[in-house]
Automatic annotation (TrEMBL):
Its EC number is 3.1.3.89. The lineage of its organism: Bacteria, Pseudomonadati, Pseudomonadota, Gammaproteobacteria, Alteromonadales. Residues 26-151 form the HD/PDEase domain. It is an enzyme of class 3 (hydrolase). Signal peptide: none annotated. This is 5'-deoxynucleotidase. The gene is yfbR. The keyword Chaperone does not apply. One of its GO terms (molecular function) is 5'-deoxynucleotidase activity.
Length: 200
């Protein structure tokens, strides 16, 4: 049986550094990022279903988040200011991401592709789940930003300003995001000594 290189795409994600153009107090790789986005996406759906009448599957949201950056195995992490610098560049880069995702999908045995395509190829992801994962992605970046600022890394000051605006927009349209922020956000930078003291 021919060996698939699919897992090689996944196991190389820890080699890809996020925030590569910035000084970071604590480095972060794409695999760590995807894991944290998956946890946040799962929680967002649990909140949505429990408090706001949602009917999404939390496990599906988490799985989508785990795969949402798979194209970066080929393309690496690109600064969002660069990626969205102008519409022409954004369109071209999105096409590259789509090609990379389809290349990754093609490494799987043919009989497995139909099940995996709506998880890996972002153009095939259900829009409602895609919105959840995008919100989780922004929240994870915000947690990272707050942690860097906590250690007086002023390189993240402009990042926080940009994310503040994005989160305000999300809160207005997604009550589960507002709820997540109220419950979890401030405690994400809690010190180890204080973790056991925090009671909700």
């Amino acid at each position: 049986m021919k060996q698939s290189t699919f897992m090689a795409w996944i196991t190389r994600l820890p080699l890809l550094k996020r925030w590569a153009l910035m000084h970071c107090f604590q480095e972060e790789n794409v695999s760590e990022h995807c894991h944290q986005v998956a946890v946040i996406a799962h929680l967002l759906v649990v909140i949505k279903n429990t408090r706001f009448g949602g009917t999404l599957n939390p496990e599906k949201a988490a799985t989508l988040a785990l795969y949402h950056e798979v194209s970066e195995t080929k393309l690496q992490d690109i600064n969002s200011n660069t990626k969205y610098h102008n519409p022409e560049f954004t369109k071209a880069f999105k096409q590259l991401e789509d090609l990379a995702e389809k290349e990754c999908l093609a490494t799987l045995p043919e009989d497995l592709r139909a099940a995996m395509e709506p998880l890996i190829v972002q153009a095939e992801v259900d829009p409602e789940y895609k919105a959840i994962v995008k919100a989780a992605d922004i929240l994870q970046a915000y947690v990272k930003t707050n942690n860097e600022l906590r250690f007086h890394n002023n390189e993240f000051e402009h990042v926080k300003q940009n994310l503040d605006r994005k989160l305000a927009e999300l809160e207005a349209s997604m009550p589960e995001v507002k709820c997540f922020i109220e419950i979890f956000l401030d405690s994400c930078t809690t010190t180890l000594d204080k973790i056991s003291e925090v009671q909700y």
